[in-house]
Amino acid sequence: MYFRPRIPWDAQPPINGLIACENNIAEVDNPTRVLEVPSHYWGAEKCTAAAFRPEAPLTGCTNLWSILMTFGMVHLKNVKVLPNAFFGIKGGYRLSSFTLTSQFRTPTAIAWLQMVHPNYAQKSPSAQTFPGYNHLMTTMEWNSLVLMPIWEAYLMQNYMSHMSTMVVCCLQDQSKDITGGACAWCRNHAQVCPCEALQQMWMHSNTLSQADDTGKLLEAIHGPRSIDIVYPTKGSTITYH
User: Could you tell me the residue range of the domain that residue 132 belongs to?
Assistant: First the structure.
Protein backbone atom coordinates (compact mmCIF):
# COMPACT_ATOMS: atom_id res chain seq x y z
CA MET A 1 0.00 0.00 0.00
CA TYR A 2 2.83 2.41 0.81
CA PHE A 3 4.73 1.55 -2.38
CA ARG A 4 2.26 1.38 -5.28
CA PRO A 5 1.70 4.55 -7.32
CA ARG A 6 -1.86 3.45 -8.14
CA ILE A 7 -4.24 1.09 -6.35
CA PRO A 8 -7.73 -0.34 -6.98
CA TRP A 9 -10.35 2.25 -6.09
CA ASP A 10 -11.87 0.04 -3.38
CA ALA A 11 -8.49 -0.38 -1.64
CA GLN A 12 -8.01 3.29 -0.85
CA PRO A 13 -8.68 4.71 2.62
CA PRO A 14 -11.96 6.60 3.10
CA ILE A 15 -10.56 10.13 2.92
CA ASN A 16 -13.13 12.58 4.31
CA GLY A 17 -15.58 9.72 4.38
CA LEU A 18 -15.66 9.40 0.60
CA ILE A 19 -14.22 6.87 -1.83
CA ALA A 20 -14.05 7.97 -5.44
CA CYS A 21 -14.91 5.19 -7.85
CA GLU A 22 -15.96 4.48 -11.38
CA ASN A 23 -16.16 0.70 -11.41
CA ASN A 24 -14.78 -2.29 -9.57
CA ILE A 25 -11.57 -2.53 -11.57
CA ALA A 26 -10.60 1.12 -11.94
CA GLU A 27 -7.37 2.25 -10.31
CA VAL A 28 -6.76 5.59 -8.66
CA ASP A 29 -3.70 7.48 -7.45
CA ASN A 30 -2.58 5.98 -4.16
CA PRO A 31 -3.01 8.57 -1.36
CA THR A 32 -0.92 6.44 1.03
CA ARG A 33 2.11 6.03 -1.22
CA VAL A 34 5.13 7.30 0.68
CA LEU A 35 8.04 5.06 -0.35
CA GLU A 36 9.75 4.77 -3.73
CA VAL A 37 12.00 1.75 -4.32
CA PRO A 38 14.77 1.80 -6.98
CA SER A 39 13.44 -0.01 -10.05
CA HIS A 40 16.54 -2.18 -10.51
CA TYR A 41 15.30 -4.49 -7.75
CA TRP A 42 12.61 -5.88 -10.01
CA GLY A 43 14.49 -6.52 -13.24
CA ALA A 44 13.82 -5.20 -16.73
CA GLU A 45 11.45 -2.34 -17.50
CA LYS A 46 8.60 -4.79 -18.13
CA CYS A 47 8.83 -5.90 -14.48
CA THR A 48 7.95 -2.61 -12.83
CA ALA A 49 4.19 -2.77 -13.53
CA ALA A 50 3.80 -5.76 -11.19
CA ALA A 51 6.52 -4.78 -8.70
CA PHE A 52 4.02 -4.30 -5.86
CA ARG A 53 1.10 -6.43 -6.96
CA PRO A 54 0.19 -9.52 -4.88
CA GLU A 55 0.76 -11.89 -7.77
CA ALA A 56 3.47 -13.97 -9.39
CA PRO A 57 5.89 -11.87 -11.46
CA LEU A 58 6.66 -12.45 -15.12
CA THR A 59 9.51 -14.79 -16.02
CA GLY A 60 12.79 -12.93 -15.61
CA CYS A 61 11.27 -10.57 -13.04
CA THR A 62 10.80 -10.43 -9.30
CA ASN A 63 8.48 -8.39 -7.12
CA LEU A 64 7.83 -7.59 -3.48
CA TRP A 65 5.26 -10.38 -3.13
CA SER A 66 7.52 -13.11 -4.52
CA ILE A 67 10.42 -12.07 -2.26
CA LEU A 68 8.19 -12.08 0.83
CA MET A 69 6.73 -15.45 -0.16
CA THR A 70 10.26 -16.86 -0.47
CA PHE A 71 12.06 -15.35 2.52
CA GLY A 72 9.32 -13.85 4.69
CA MET A 73 11.24 -10.58 4.66
CA VAL A 74 12.63 -8.05 2.26
CA HIS A 75 15.51 -5.64 2.71
CA LEU A 76 15.71 -2.63 0.41
CA LYS A 77 18.35 0.07 0.16
CA ASN A 78 18.23 3.69 -0.90
CA VAL A 79 14.45 3.94 -0.50
CA LYS A 80 13.11 7.41 -1.22
CA VAL A 81 10.57 8.96 1.16
CA LEU A 82 8.02 10.92 -0.87
CA PRO A 83 5.96 13.93 0.20
CA ASN A 84 2.56 12.73 1.42
CA ALA A 85 -0.27 15.01 2.50
CA PHE A 86 -2.36 12.15 3.87
CA PHE A 87 0.28 11.33 6.51
CA GLY A 88 1.65 14.86 6.81
CA ILE A 89 5.11 13.78 5.61
CA LYS A 90 7.37 16.37 4.00
CA GLY A 91 9.59 13.75 2.35
CA GLY A 92 12.51 14.53 0.10
CA TYR A 93 15.02 12.26 1.81
CA ARG A 94 16.14 8.63 1.55
CA LEU A 95 16.33 5.67 3.89
CA SER A 96 19.70 3.96 3.58
CA SER A 97 17.98 0.64 4.33
CA PHE A 98 14.45 -0.56 4.91
CA THR A 99 13.44 -4.02 6.19
CA LEU A 100 9.96 -5.50 6.12
CA THR A 101 9.06 -8.85 7.70
CA SER A 102 5.88 -10.87 7.24
CA GLN A 103 3.98 -13.89 8.50
CA PHE A 104 3.82 -15.54 5.08
CA ARG A 105 4.18 -19.32 4.91
CA THR A 106 7.67 -19.69 3.47
CA PRO A 107 10.26 -22.49 3.16
CA THR A 108 12.02 -21.00 6.19
CA ALA A 109 8.81 -21.04 8.24
CA ILE A 110 8.14 -24.68 7.33
CA ALA A 111 11.70 -25.70 8.20
CA TRP A 112 11.61 -23.79 11.51
CA LEU A 113 8.38 -25.45 12.62
CA GLN A 114 9.66 -28.89 11.68
CA MET A 115 12.77 -28.22 13.75
CA VAL A 116 11.09 -26.95 16.93
CA HIS A 117 8.10 -29.31 16.96
CA PRO A 118 8.16 -32.00 14.23
CA ASN A 119 5.13 -33.85 15.59
CA TYR A 120 2.95 -30.72 15.52
CA ALA A 121 4.28 -29.79 12.09
CA GLN A 122 3.35 -33.16 10.63
CA LYS A 123 0.05 -33.92 12.37
CA SER A 124 -1.73 -30.74 13.37
CA PRO A 125 -4.17 -29.24 10.83
CA SER A 126 -3.37 -25.76 12.15
CA ALA A 127 0.30 -26.26 11.28
CA GLN A 128 -0.64 -26.16 7.60
CA THR A 129 -1.28 -22.43 7.86
CA PHE A 130 1.65 -21.53 10.16
CA PRO A 131 2.92 -18.87 10.88
CA GLY A 132 0.12 -16.47 9.91
CA TYR A 133 -2.70 -18.92 10.64
CA ASN A 134 -4.81 -17.12 8.07
CA HIS A 135 -7.76 -18.83 6.37
CA LEU A 136 -7.91 -21.25 9.27
CA MET A 137 -11.31 -22.38 10.46
CA THR A 138 -11.53 -25.10 13.10
CA THR A 139 -14.33 -26.34 15.32
CA MET A 140 -13.40 -23.47 17.64
CA GLU A 141 -13.60 -21.01 14.71
CA TRP A 142 -10.53 -19.08 15.83
CA ASN A 143 -8.22 -17.03 13.68
CA SER A 144 -5.25 -14.74 14.17
CA LEU A 145 -7.41 -11.59 14.00
CA VAL A 146 -9.90 -12.60 16.70
CA LEU A 147 -8.60 -15.30 19.01
CA MET A 148 -5.67 -17.69 19.12
CA PRO A 149 -4.94 -20.70 21.36
CA ILE A 150 -1.94 -20.26 23.64
CA TRP A 151 0.23 -22.80 21.81
CA GLU A 152 -0.26 -21.35 18.33
CA ALA A 153 0.26 -17.83 19.67
CA TYR A 154 3.45 -19.00 21.39
CA LEU A 155 4.75 -20.53 18.16
CA MET A 156 3.94 -17.43 16.13
CA GLN A 157 5.61 -15.14 18.68
CA ASN A 158 8.78 -17.21 18.73
CA TYR A 159 8.95 -17.54 14.97
CA MET A 160 8.69 -13.76 14.56
CA SER A 161 11.47 -13.41 17.14
CA HIS A 162 13.49 -15.79 14.98
CA MET A 163 12.79 -13.56 11.98
CA SER A 164 14.23 -10.62 13.94
CA THR A 165 17.33 -12.68 14.62
CA MET A 166 17.62 -13.42 10.90
CA VAL A 167 17.44 -9.72 10.08
CA VAL A 168 20.29 -8.97 12.49
CA CYS A 169 22.44 -11.97 11.64
CA CYS A 170 22.04 -11.81 7.87
CA LEU A 171 22.43 -8.04 7.54
CA GLN A 172 24.73 -6.85 10.30
CA ASP A 173 28.51 -7.04 10.49
CA GLN A 174 29.17 -10.72 11.20
CA SER A 175 32.35 -9.88 13.12
CA LYS A 176 30.25 -8.19 15.81
CA ASP A 177 27.76 -10.70 17.14
CA ILE A 178 25.56 -8.60 19.43
CA THR A 179 22.99 -11.39 19.85
CA GLY A 180 24.77 -13.45 22.48
CA GLY A 181 25.59 -16.28 20.13
CA ALA A 182 22.39 -16.34 18.08
CA CYS A 183 24.25 -15.54 14.86
CA ALA A 184 26.67 -18.40 15.41
CA TRP A 185 23.62 -20.65 15.80
CA CYS A 186 22.20 -19.23 12.58
CA ARG A 187 25.38 -20.02 10.69
CA ASN A 188 25.15 -23.63 11.86
CA HIS A 189 21.47 -23.98 10.92
CA ALA A 190 21.25 -22.61 7.40
CA GLN A 191 17.97 -24.40 6.75
CA VAL A 192 16.21 -21.92 9.03
CA CYS A 193 18.61 -19.00 8.50
CA PRO A 194 19.10 -18.71 4.71
CA CYS A 195 21.57 -15.84 5.10
CA GLU A 196 23.56 -16.83 2.03
CA ALA A 197 20.54 -16.54 -0.25
CA LEU A 198 19.42 -13.31 1.40
CA GLN A 199 22.86 -11.74 1.09
CA GLN A 200 23.10 -12.81 -2.54
CA MET A 201 19.89 -10.96 -3.25
CA TRP A 202 20.63 -7.87 -1.17
CA MET A 203 24.30 -7.46 -2.11
CA HIS A 204 23.63 -7.96 -5.81
CA SER A 205 20.18 -6.51 -6.29
CA ASN A 206 20.19 -7.12 -10.04
CA THR A 207 20.96 -10.83 -9.73
CA LEU A 208 17.29 -11.79 -9.65
CA SER A 209 16.55 -9.94 -12.85
CA GLN A 210 19.32 -11.90 -14.59
CA ALA A 211 17.97 -15.27 -13.46
CA ASP A 212 15.07 -17.04 -15.17
CA ASP A 213 13.20 -16.69 -11.91
CA THR A 214 13.90 -16.43 -8.21
CA GLY A 215 13.28 -20.12 -7.68
CA LYS A 216 16.13 -21.07 -9.99
CA LEU A 217 18.42 -18.58 -8.26
CA LEU A 218 17.69 -20.14 -4.88
CA GLU A 219 18.29 -23.60 -6.26
CA ALA A 220 21.59 -22.45 -7.74
CA ILE A 221 22.65 -20.98 -4.40
CA HIS A 222 21.58 -23.78 -2.10
CA GLY A 223 21.14 -26.82 -4.31
CA PRO A 224 18.21 -29.25 -4.04
CA ARG A 225 16.53 -29.54 -0.65
CA SER A 226 14.19 -32.00 0.92
CA ILE A 227 10.87 -30.12 1.02
CA ASP A 228 8.93 -29.73 -2.20
CA ILE A 229 7.05 -26.45 -2.45
CA VAL A 230 5.44 -24.49 -5.24
CA TYR A 231 7.34 -21.25 -5.59
CA PRO A 232 5.23 -18.18 -6.39
CA THR A 233 6.54 -17.57 -9.88
CA LYS A 234 4.55 -18.58 -12.93
CA GLY A 235 5.34 -22.16 -13.87
CA SER A 236 8.08 -22.53 -11.25
CA THR A 237 8.56 -25.29 -8.69
CA ILE A 238 11.64 -25.58 -6.49
CA THR A 239 12.80 -27.69 -3.58
CA TYR A 240 13.98 -25.98 -0.44
CA HIS A 241 14.51 -26.87 3.23
Answer: 34-239
